[in-house]
Amino acid sequence: MSSYDKIYTITEYDGFTRGIASNEYVELPEKTFDDLESLILTNNRETEVKAMEFLSLSARRGVGKIITARNYVGLISMSDGTVIEILPKIVGENIGGQETKQIFMEMLKTLKDVAFKDFNISSLHVERLNLFEIFIRMFLEEVATLTKKGLKAAYTSIEENERFYKGKLLVSRDIKHNIINKERFYVQYDDFNVNTPENRLIKATLELLYKRTIDSRNKQTAGRLMNYFESVGDSTCYDADFSKCIASRSTTHYEKALSWCRIFIKGNSFTAFAGKEVALALLFPMEKIFESFIGSKLRSHVGDGMKLHLQESKFSLFDNPNRAFALRPDFVLEANDRVVVLDTKWKLLSDNARNKGISQSDMYQMYAYGKKYNAEKVILLYPHSDNIGEREIRFASDDGVRVDVSMIDLMNVDENIADLLARVC
Fold first, then answer.
1. 227 phi, psi to nearest 5 deg
2. Domain check: are 168 and 310 in the same one?
3. Measuring CA to CA, which residue among 79, 59, 32 is closest to residue 278?
4. Are residues 363 and 232 in the same domain?
5. φ and ψ at 246, to 5 degrees?
């Protein structure tokens, strides 16, 4: 089996079987399935973030055990080199895996506090890379930029038994080590060098990824960049080195690279998996990604005379001193003395589902927004689905609340958002 045979890709709500071929599910080798099952069960018992939020375990007659992806997307890199890749379920005419990955990466860029926020996705050639290799490529590009600006150097305190006297003589240690070797001096002195905690962490990450990558370009780039860190020592304690990384003007160009270091060598992301079976779990909630993506598009299209508020908490469901049950719509748009409330839901609607798949609780929520904000209109935004014929569904109550359900085509999101704003404003 080649390294590339160890990449298994599914989309949201699809699943894996344990060594059984199926038209409905992706077959995983028994050991990989067992490792993934162990990961789920271990994390459900031992961590605050339950793995069942990301992956569910079930069984089906004739198929056996099934591991199903939920509404989190990204990757799980197993310790044996296997990569589990979970992509969002994006539908549309002629949308394949490459287009899905491209759209997903563009959406991911809009999340706050992510290491690749300003990255040029089109330069990655994602058609031939899995998500793990894409994230590696982003880190390597960040380190390459950093090396061009110059590695950070700082004074570090060194204690050594030297041939020449310099700095401060450590008398007790000098007596201990040099009572016979009179030609040496046990001294402490400051040395200006690049052996800083930031550089040690980046070196450790480069060494790790050089071993883990199976992309020839990534391996070549990692090897070349490691040459810049030859005079940097090894990190003997990641936590200690991270605690010594203090943000300052002189280290601003290190911030993104260090964010990647936390992801790769500490597993810090939206998830908190633990266990020997997993090397890295980088999973993102699609609800949050979709909301962030739509928000970025709304901001770019909001014109003069419009005000856009994100995650506003101006009202509560009940008016009392405790402000119980706060209302927090995704977006509130003010234009020409009118208020429009917009909320996002990451779900594929269908003509075959009851109420097209729109949940009753969501509509209760929209009704409350309409009443409390005295909104001219409430708009509920879903991703486009091939399973529904209408692009917009309108509801109106007899007491004046209007709720429009609109579908956003992620292949033409700018056009959709511009058209939406033109109609409501």
1. -60, -30
2. no
3. 79
4. no
5. -105, 125
Average pLDDT, the chain: 82
- pLDDT range class, residue 310, cuts 50, 70, 90: confident
- The DSSP output letter for 412 is S
Domain that holds residue 189: 154-193
Residue with tokens 């090894």: 234
What is d(CA 133, CA 118) in angstroms, rounded to the nearest whole number? 18
Report the C-alpha gap between 383 and 405 in whole angstroms: 11
Q: Which of 348, 363, 342, 349 is nearest to 295 (CA)?
A: 342
Block residue for tokens 């020839």: 216
Q: Is the pLDDT of residue 276 over 70?
A: no
Considering only CA atoms, which of 105, 275, 115 is closest in space to residue 205? 115
- Residue-level pLDDT at 89: 86
pTM: 0.77
Which 8-state DSSP code applies to residue 177? H
Q: 292 lies in a domain? A: no
Which of these, 297, 284, 323, 292, lies nearest to 73 by C-alpha position? 284
Q: Which two tokens stand for residue 254?
A: 């290190």
Residue 360, both tokens: 């009753």
Q: Is 40:273 a contact under the CB 8 Å cutoff?
A: no
Do the beta carbons of residue 109 and residue 116 sit within 8 Å?
yes
Both 17 and 119 in a single domain?
A: yes
CB atoms within 10 A of CB 152: 17
Asked whether residue 293 is domain-assigned, the answer is no
Q: Does 294 map to a domain? A: no
Beta bridge partners of 26: 16
Identify which has the larger pLDDT, 53 or 363. 363
Instruction: Sort strands 392-396 and 402-408 into parallel, antiparallel or unpaired.
Output: antiparallel
Provide the pLDDT for residue 379: 93
Tokens for 9, please give them.
């890709």
* Model confidence at 3: pLDDT above 90: no
Residue 122 lies inside a defined structural domain of this protein: yes
Q: With left for phi above 0 and alpha for psi between -120 and 50, is residue 337 left, alpha or beta?
A: left
Question: Beta-carbon neighbour count of residue 281 at 10 Å?
Answer: 25
Residue pLDDT, tens place only, 65-93: 999 998 888 888 887 778 888 989 887 65
- Same domain for 237 and 117? yes
> Do 62 and 124 have their domain in common?
yes
